[in-house]
TrEMBL record:
Residues 53-169 form the ARMC9 CTLH-like domain. Coiled coil: none annotated. It comes from the Eukaryota. PANTHER family: OS05G0299300 PROTEIN, WD REPEAT-CONTAINING PROTEIN 91-LIKE ISOFORM X1. It comes from Dillenia turbinata. The lineage of its organism: Eukaryota, Viridiplantae, Streptophyta, Embryophyta, Tracheophyta. This is ARMC9 CTLH-like domain-containing protein.
């Protein structure tokens, strides 16, 4: 966390040095709505599982997941990207399950409107998931039953926590190095 604060200070110093006061104001405003939450795992998990999913903010959820995928899209990070892509699938499936449990099938359809084309192109057995809003009781369907269990959610939450802890513990140094190279 100290490295992130140091990086923020470097950015501020650079913007002041160059006289970019409007950019500095925008930077300060962006920091107050920091989508990455300073890479604080608890805050990110809270944002995903206590705000975006329960409040059916599909667009923001997809945007956050895309933000993380962009962070790990370099060729050197292929394993992290692949793991994050699998996690993304599980988080989106949990969003769908939560919407179904809450009686909000309209929110499932809305999610498909936002990222349905991308999901179809990826494959990963998404075909049946597009029919889930039209099933009478998907929690009893053998294909979906596991996703409606508390154990599956607990496992997803734990895996997401462990993954984010692992990647962010090593990425602070990388981010600091990025800022140093950028502002030399």
């Amino acid at each position: 966390m100290e490295n992130m604060q140091y990086g923020d200070e470097l950015v501020r110093e650079f913007l002041v040095f160059r006289g970019f006061t409007k950019t500095l104001q925008a930077f300060e405003a962006e920091l107050s709505t920091d989508v990455g939450k300073g890479f604080q795992v608890e805050k990110i998990l809270d944002l995903i599982f206590s705000v975006y999913i329960p409040q059916f903010q599909a667009e923001k959820l997809v945007g956050l997941l895309n933000f993380f995928k962009e962070c790990f899209s370099s060729p050197a990070e292929t394993l992290l990207f692949a793991t994050l892509s699998k996690l993304e699938v599980s988080v989106l499936r949990y969003y769908i399950v939560h919407a179904i449990k809450s009686g909000r099938k309209d929110k499932v359809v809305e999610l498909y409107g936002i990222c349905g084309n991308d999901l179809i192109q990826r494959g990963q057995d998404w075909g049946p998931w597009f029919g889930i809003p039209y099933l009478r009781n998907p929690s009893l369907d053998p294909q979906f039953r596991v996703y409606f269990s508390k154990e599956w959610f607990d496992t997803l939450h734990l895996f997401m926590n462990n993954f984010l802890c692992e990647i962010f513990n090593g990425s602070h140094i990388l981010l600091l190095g990025f800022f140093l190279v950028l502002f030399q």
